[in-house]
Amino acid sequence: MGKKGKKMAAVCLAGILALSGSGCSGGFPLTAASGASEEAGQRTAGNRLEAVQQLGKLRIGISADYAPFAFEIPGEAGGIPYGGSDIELGTYIAQKLGVEAEFVEMDFEACMNAVEEGSVDLVLLGMLPEAEREEKMDFTRVYYKPGRQVLLVKESQKGKLSKLEDFEGKTVAAQYGSLQAQLVAEQLPGSYLELTERATGAVLMLRLGTAAGAVLDEAMAQKIMKERPELVLSGAELPYDAEGIVGGVVKGETELLTEINAAVEEAVEEKLYLDWLDAANEQAMLLQTTTR
Predict the structure, then answer these.
(1) DSSP states along 79-120
(2) Model confidence pLDDT, tens digit, residues 8-18
(3) pTM value?
């Protein structure tokens, strides 16, 4: 990512080949990566929830390039090398199911394919519930409503870039696969959209002067401005109307979806997800300042 040519590039998943248990009527779908004991558990399960409980793990697809939802933690010895609010949510859901969370890191589009094929049970991608995605999966309940989407600019340029139309003909950076990238494509058709691997990559482009603005969620923008006082809000924002962020479960697995929704609802009502998100924002910013 970080290249304009990467828009919607589908990635082929090696080893994700859905197999059906031949000769086992009503058997649970197997995956090519399954071991012998896993195959036995899946063959006897009547649905995916039973299989998850028999195998003792919930396979969760993530794309660890979308802070603060999921990101890599370099240099960590042992344990899960990922951080983010969606990592915390996935761990919490698995605990509520009485199983272990197994995170499978893939490209965003590969995650879409994986949940459609059933090689993962759940995807958590900081994802909006778009109609074409619903054809591939069943959505969980909303677990986060994004805030204002703003344009960050250099303080020296604020007077010249105070309205959306001021970005006409200029480069605007946003993270690939994000709400921000979608809004730029829809609302700033006259600008040049530069896609980056991470949101911090968009900020780096702005700092280096290769982009006139970086589109971010306001909460992240506020934290960045504390670290980078030379960056400010332009005054322009990109309005949107969306239900919020959801997870995706293998289509038709209503029992599993019900249990996952119960865990999600609890995390939302007890404000756990907001706490995880705030901590993830802080951690992502710390990683940015120590690696740039």
Answers:
(1) S-SEESHHHHHHHHHHHHHTSEEEEEE--HHHHHHHHHHTSS
(2) 333 333 333 23
(3) 0.68
